[in-house]
Specification:
Blueprint (H helix, E strand, L loop, with lengths): L15 H23 L5 H8 L3 H13 L1 H15 L2 H18 L5 H29 L5 H9 L1 H15 L1 H4 L2 H6 L6 H8 L4 H5 L5 H10 L1 H22 L2 H12 L9 E6 L3 E5 L11 E5 L2 H4 L2 E8 L3 E10 L4 E9 L2 E2 L3 E7 L8 E4 L5 E6 L3 E10 L6 E10 L8
Parallel strand pairs: 1-5
Antiparallel strand pairs: 1-2, 2-3, 4-12, 5-11, 6-7, 6-10, 6-12, 8-9, 8-11
Helix pairs in contact: 1-6, 1-7, 1-8, 1-11, 2-3, 3-6, 4-5, 4-6, 5-6, 5-11
Length: about 400
């Protein structure tokens, strides 16, 4: 893709400091590029509320960003082959930082969509230029390891965005998050002062844009293969990671509306009495609870029933604590929408001094027998869950305490 190199020219030997600066600049550029992209995925609901649009519309801005990444890769890639690695990389970093900064001042959704689209051009141009600069300066024997380290900057950028969403977003709102996106522009100064130009490019620089395109055509099969490969990889990554924070937020708002104990009801069973504590609503974090104390055996050793609704993709938790040394039993029956179900887990916690470990297993639709409460287990946890993402279910959990350990037939 270039004019013929001078065979008499001796290749430049980079110092370790120069190699370190080149790798650092490329790593930071990729990290901050990812940071600028992912800050939006943590605050789509806030931006949607600000512009009076649906979250679907904000997701469309992510699509626009990704759709224009190939355009940025083409533009900045050709600039890097024609004019060197350093200057296009500096221009790229300044470009996407300024556009990101401008997103903070978007007055409406249309302007925001345009800015996010323009940002995609800068996002697409950073990786190819930065990686080329770093790998052409890095020692040959370390290029495999260093390329992996360089790629990890993307996940670190995601992590930084998550930290800012935790620390900055609640205190200052979503617009200052984009102000932080302008900080990477300072990286251009570091590149200009510390990072040398690639010797490989200087020896093999392209004579013209036409020469670049001819080289691409000459490697058409490899080019198409790599484009298809990266397209499929992007399906795997952006197809999940971009919406995952909002998915967790939406699901947890249904499952855990407020912070608090993860127990809807608990039974404290001792030698002399049985106490049942239950929260009046299934809302986790509920501070109020009802309490009942049973002394008569016909009240204690009977079925204690708990019923509630389960929104999609949520769970409810129940606990039996044993304050006795004798072995009592528990029979467990679960019904979902009136039918016997196994949509639950039981976790047994061994008593002090027992060599057994904490164990978890699925409930049986026919009923589950747990002998040895008190003697073998000091606590038993029950979890009931609704794995249906499309509808709410009604559950009924029956816990029958028995003085003996035989229980129902298995």
């Amino acid at each position: 893709m270039s004019s013929s190199p001078d065979p008499s020219a001796r290749p430049r030997v980079y110092t370790r400091a120069e190699q370190r600066h080149a790798l650092t600049a490329s790593f930071l550029g990729w990290t901050l590029d990812a940071f600028d992209f992912f800050i939006l995925v943590f605050m789509m609901d806030r931006v949607a509320a600000e512009f009076h649009v649906t979250k679907t519309a904000i997701v469309a801005t992510l699509t626009a960003t990704l759709a224009l990444r190939p355009v940025g890769a083409l533009i900045f890639g050709m600039l890097a082959d024609r004019y060197g690695r350093r200057r296009p990389l500096m221009a790229n970093v300044i470009y996407f930082s300024l556009v990101e900064f401008g997103c903070a001042f978007a007055p409406n959704y249309t302007v925001f969509l345009v800015l996010r689209s323009l940002y995609g051009i800068g996002m697409g141009g950073e990786w190819g230029v930065g990686a080329s600069l770093a790998m052409e300066i890095a020692p040959r024997r370390w290029r495999g390891v260093l390329s992996g380290i360089l790629q990890s900057g993307y996940s670190i950028g995601y992590l930084l965005a998550a930290l800012c969403a935790r620390l900055v977003l609640p205190a200052w709102g979503w617009r200052p998050m984009f102000w932080l996106g302008g900080v990477p522009a300072l990286l251009a100064l570091y590149i200009r002062m510390r990072v040398p130009e690639s010797e490989a490019w200087q020896q093999n620089r392209a004579a013209s844009v036409v020469a670049i395109l001819r080289t691409v055509v000459g490697h058409a099969r490899s080019f198409v293969y790599l484009v298809v490969l990266m397209t499929l990889m992007m399906f795997l990554s952006h197809g999940t990671q971009d919406l995952y924070p909002d998915f967790l937020k939406t699901v947890l708002l249904a499952a855990v509306p407020e912070p608090g104990p993860w127990v809807q009801a608990r039974i404290i069973h001792s030698k002399d009495d049985t106490r049942v504590f239950q929260r009046p609503t299934p809302r986790l974090g509920e501070t109020e609870q009802t309490a009942k104390r049973f002394l008569a055996e016909n009240q204690r050793f009977t079925e204690h029933t708990f019923s509630a609704s389960l929104p999609p993709l949520t769970s409810r938790f129940f606990l039996i604590q044993a304050e006795l040394k004798d072995a009592h039993g528990v029979d467990v029956k679960l019904k979902i929408d009136g039918a016997p179900s196994d949509a639950g887990l039981v976790v047994t916690v061994p008593a002090a001094g027992k060599a057994t470990k904490v164990e978890a297993r699925r409930l049986s639709a026919e009923g589950t027998v747990l002998p040895g409460i008190g003697r073998d287990y000091r606590a038993v946890w029950f979890a009931v869950f609704n794995a249906d993402a499309g509808r709410e279910t009604q559950f009924q959990l029956g816990l029958t305490l028995r003085k003996d350990v035989r229980g129902m037939k298995k």
